[in-house]
Amino acid sequence: MRAYERLLKYVAYHTTSDDNAPEDKCPTTDRQRLLGQALAEELRALGLTNAHMDDYGYVYGTLPANCETNRPVLGLIAHMDTSPAASGENVRPRIVEQYDGGDIVLNAEKNVVMRPKEFPSLLDYKGQDLIVTDGTTLLGGDDKAGIAEIFTALERLIQENIPHGTIKVGITPDEETGRGADHFDVKRFGADYAYTVDGGKLGEIEYENFNAADAKVTVNGVSVHPGDSKMKMKNAILMAMEFHSMLPVFENPAFTEGYEGFSHLEGIQGHEEQTSLHYIIRDHDREKFEQKKARFQKIADYLNDKYGADTIVLKMVDSYYNMKEQIEPHIFLIRDAEQAMREAGVDPLVVPIRGGTDGARLSYMGLPCPNLSTGGHNFHGRFEYIPVQSMDSMVEVLLNLVRMK
User: What is the CATH number of domain 216-320?
Assistant: First the structure.
């Protein structure tokens, strides 16, 4: 079975995770378990040992070495959940065969069209076969494409009797919520190092990610009837707007790229009595990251001094850190990935992640774990697509990695 065929099968499962689930709930959505069970069964059918889904919804399996070797144990990891940023239910993919370089009508009824003018990366794939959405949901290649590529590589290893060392497989839930490594059992997993297959454009290799924090700002006001509110009302909505206005205008995702960090307002809700703001704070540079967090605290302190104690309640929690310092002592992982890509006819491109992966946290948990591309584009939205040929190439990359070790 080719990788794209597996992807088409996996995207039929609704596996959207939930940012608002209780902290002790794992996975955050029970529907992820349905795919997890199917993946565990597929690993068993392929012949992996100890293939199972644990109580937290993590899927594990082992492909024992088929030759005498003292090779280190390699781990391959992907995640099963999809982003809550767009619907992941009733995904209806289709394949645009031999793409001609023009506009792609995803949904004629709703007038949803994917155009090279807005998405110029499309032009890199003229003549190739593109898996697209119907314009109403995301596709789910992030990261079901990674799962499909790993499982297809495993199948090839077994069917073609390719010599290999011990390979560990891990499929996590809840990566999109930042909880994907919360219950990952690194010790029982038993790999010396690993790769997540969770990136974008074919050829990308990533080992520098954002330092990340989550910030919740609760603004407590006083609601009084507007006809009798002079010198009494403290409108929480307006104070929340004031808080946001004190952040640097151009330090937001719409104005940043590369290594530039940002503070991103993800959500706002409330009324005069209480309003809450939800932010994510990101920067590759640890010192700048800490400065951004300090700015949040300074604004909160200023407004509390202005309006009274506990008007602004700020809660910040670090989510993950830049894995660069954990990977650099094992830089051979990057060099191996570059070589594996070249041997598969893929030009490697080492780029920073403007986000995070399970690999970032796993690297700090003692499992060095850089990230590899899946070949997909426009994740988390209706215009997501992935070339069939890119998925085939990633299978070859994974096989080359295994042959090296």
Answer: 3.30.70.360
Which one of the listed residues 175, 204, 272, 283 is annotated catalytic? 175
Task: Please list the residue range(s) of the chain that carry CATH number 3.40.630.10.
Answer: 3-209+322-404
For the record, the structure tokens of 166 come out as 């011990």
Residue 169 β-bridge partners: 61, 76
- pLDDT of 59 reads 98
Residues with Cβ within 8 Å of residue 32, at least 6 apart in sequence: 15, 17, 57, 80, 81, 173, 174
Q: Residue 337: which H helix or E strand, with range?
A: helix 332-343
CB 5 within 8 A of CB 93: no
What single-letter DSSP state applies at residue 100? -
Q: What is the pLDDT of residue 317?
A: 93
**Which part of the chain has CATH 3.30.70.360?**
216-320
C-alpha–C-alpha distance, residues 375 and 392, integer Å? 9
- Mark whether 81 is an active-site residue: yes
The predicted-structure confidence for 23-74, as pLDDT tens digits, reads as follows 899 999 999 999 999 999 999 999 999 999 999 999 999 999 998 878 899 9
Residue type, 95: I
Active-site entry in 81, 149, 155, 198: 81
Output the CA–CA distances (angstroms, integers) from residue 230 to 24, 222, 233, 242, in the order listed: 45, 12, 7, 19
pTM of the model: 0.89
175 is catalytic: yes
The CATH number of 3-209+322-404 is: 3.40.630.10
pLDDT in tens, 159-174: 999 999 999 999 999 9
